[in-house]
Design a protein that fits this description.
By secondary structure, this protein is an alpha+beta fold. It has helices spanning 2-21, 25-48, 198-202, 232-253, 275-283, 356-362, and strands spanning 52-57, 61-63, 68-75, 84-87, 95-97, 103-110, 116-120, 124-128, 135-139, 144-149, 156-157, 180-186, 196-197, 208-213, 221-225, 255-258, 266-268, 303-307, 325-330, 341-343, 346-350. β20 and β21 (346-350) form a beta hairpin.
């Protein structure tokens, strides 16, 4: 509006000069500039009256490198839209809006390469005349947020880690055996004979079976230590590896996940109902604190320690675990050690001799 006002003011000045000094050629120029400023301001102002701009996100959260659908809609008010463009932060360059249209629609697909919270500034509908004298900006509303979740990768096991691990390191997790007795229940056809409670049958009662419960500490435990990364990419790789391993094991027998700030490991069952909350926490993970290793001690199941630092050995706080320990780090470790598994750009190595056989069995076919 300043340019239009300046144009009109210049026209008025020329008219005053023409009247004062009887300079007739200035009348035409002054009148033209005055009318041009008024006309352009009226045109853009009336066209922007009632015009709206909207942005609709296909989702509020999306995984890394997965497309997010974004719909941009501009609608005219009482008058058709003048020339202009839509300035959207997600677009590489503004999208032009042709004059005379009543509506403008543009659907785009965008991806995010790294996890975390992304704040999107409002989309802008910019209306302006061809000379650039008047410009009106209509925003889509408040800024919005999109949560980018760490991407999940397949877990690939290798015939590596020791002299006789080839037959064990090529497939997926087997379920942990139920070992604790939790009373009796009515016999179900197909139950192994070893679980039938024969004394109840001998007393003339109906056939019963022992009810067993799974040991909570026999599930695989994924521990994430985000500290000490050389590069931001190492931290992202460690987070992706922790997420992928958790889902990999949880879908089979359930898995526990220990993150910084937790006193106890969170359990993700095979129904995956607890996974979305854990996925969000991993998306927002930073390198400020480490996990409470006391919560991982004395577990009977396999422990997968995922470190953002390329350490060659697990921390002493884990001790010697009966179920085995696998150290997962970004990239590869130098030396002759061969990885037991690969996931999300990270390599997993047997971290302790004690329990190595159990660890291999856990990732065995």
């Amino acid at each position: 509006m300043r340019s239009a006002a300046g144009c009109a003011a210049l026209g008025i000045a020329l008219l005053l000069v023409a009247g004062t000094f009887d300079a007739e050629p200035f009348y035409v120029t002054g009148a033209a500039l005055l009318l041009l400023g008024i006309a352009v301001a009226a045109w853009i102002g009336l066209s922007a009256w009632g015009a709206t701009m909207h942005r609709t996100l296909g989702a509020r959260s999306v995984m890394e490198d997965e497309p997010l659908s974004v719909l941009l809609e501009a609608r005219a008010g009482r008058f058709p839209l003048p020339p202009g463009y839509v300035d959207e932060p997600l677009l590489e360059e503004p999208a032009a809006v042709r004059a005379g249209r009543r509506a403008f629609r543009l659907r785009v697909s965008v991806t995010f390469a790294r996890r975390g919270r992304r704040r999107l500034e409002p989309a802008m509908l910019v209306l302006r005349d061809p000379l650039g004298l008047v410009e009106r900006v209509i925003a889509s509303g408040e800024s919005e947020e999109v949560l980018v979740l760490p991407r999940l990768y397949p877990v690939r096991t290798n015939a590596a880690g020791g002299e006789d691990t080839g037959a064990h390191a090529r497939a997926l997790l087997t379920s942990a055996a139920e070992t604790e007795i939790d009373g009796l229940r009515q016999h179900v056809e197909g139950t192994p004979a070893s679980r039938i409670h024969w004394p109840s049958l001998a007393k003339g009662g109906e056939m019963m079976e022992r009810k067993l419960i799974a040991e909570a500490d026999s599930r695989p435990l994924v521990v994430l230590d985000p500290r000490g990364a050389r590069e931001p990419e190492d931290l992202d790789a460690a987070v992706r590896a922790a997420a992928s391993l958790t889902v990999h094991f949880a879908k089979r027998t359930g898995c526990a996940l220990l993150l910084p700030g937790d006193r106890r490991a969170a359990t993700v069952e095979s129904d995956m109902t607890a996974w979305p909350a854990a996925h969000v926490r991993l998306a927002l993970m930073d390198a400020d604190a480490g996990p409470a290793l006391s919560a991982a001690q004395n577990r009977r199941g396999l422990i997968l320690f995922v470190s953002a630092r390329r350490a060659d050995r697990p921390p002493r706080g884990l001790g010697r675990t009966p179920g085995g320990l696998v150290l997962v780090v970004p990239g590869e470790l130098s030396g002759k050690r061969r990885p037991l598994l690969e996931v999300a750009g990270c390599q997993g190595y047997l971290g302790a001799r004690t329990g190595s056989a159990a660890a291999m069995e856990t990732v065995a076919s």
